[in-house]
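Much of what follows relies on a compact textual record of a protein's fold. Each token is a code from a learned vocabulary of local backbone shapes. The record below shows the convention in full.
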Amino acid sequence: MVPTATTLWRRRNFPEIDHVVRREGEAPLRSLLEALALPAAERAGRLAAIPGLCWRDESGTAHANPEGGGLPGGADFPPMDQAAHFMRRTGGRR
């Protein structure tokens, strides 16, 4: 059996890694960033509710939340401004 990234994270106890998002990360990453902006007293409850997130609490205890559903729909995310990308590719020409 090949160990998963989550298993390795827990067993090897990487102190420099506080959060791991399993599977599709678009929605969990957004929720993680929102949770990290909260005061410490509110953060653990929010982290525990993020599907697919592995995280360490203030005492260093590792937690692995159950995985969530599928991918969010495209309408759940704001449109990306890709103008800078195309300007670089075309040398500034539109």
